[in-house]
Amino acid sequence: MSIVQYLKTHEDTGALRRVWPPKGHAAKRGAFLTALAQRAVDDGNSAINVLGLRPYVQVALERWVIGAPMRVRLSGTKPGASLARLDPAEGEIWEFRITEPVNQVRVFFRFARPDFIIVTGMNTKRLLGGKTSNEWRNAMAQCAAEWDKYFTGLEPHSGETVHDYVTANVRDINARA
């Protein structure tokens, strides 16, 4: 089964929930939430909701879907990226970095194909700690496990440049100006 067939099947059964663009905007990219990510957004007791961060997550995902400009980092630690691939790169695990308000959120995902992401989970940066913490490593492992639950036998999309992942309205923050 192709990735497109998996997406359609899981969306039809409700296992994956599509992020729709706001009224008056067309979808230029795709985003789907796994059940785990849906719980983080929908559960009133999740850290995302208790801290009032759901609107920030929603806006960030809607900006992705409508094709808003994205600052992307494939590697390194240079600040300023909206999207960043996490190390090790072979895992193809990414973070959507929501840095406003004070309580920052990290949304974990993988690319199904260019411009289409599968959001597998999210949490506050404070709860995750630094990128070498056990919580951070567990979140990355959970991302891979969630992917495998939905896309058994299929590898996430991979590429060499930011344009292999995001095809338009993107800036590679590591590229020389």
Task: Report helical residue fraction.
Answer: 25-40%
* Approximate shape: globular
Q: Give the spatial strand order of the biggest sheet.
A: 1-2-7-6-5-4-3-8
How many beta-strand elements? 8
Low-pLDDT residue spans: none
Cα Rg: 15 Å
Distance, first to last CA: 41 Å
Largest sheet: 8 strands, mixed
Mean pLDDT value: 94
Strand content: 15-25%
In short:
The chain is α/β, with parallel strands linked by helices.
Question: Could you characterize what this model shows?
Answer:
Helix content is 32%, strand content 22%. It has 6 helices and 8 strands; from the N terminus they run αββαααβββββααβ. It has helices at 3-13, 35-42, 47-50, 54-65, 125-128, 134-150, and strands spanning 17-18, 30-33, 70-73, 83-85, 94-98, 105-113, 116-124, 170-172. Strands 1-2-7-6-5-4-3-8 form an 8-stranded mixed β-sheet, with helices on both faces. The longest helix is centred in the C-terminal third of the chain and has 17 residues, at 134-150.
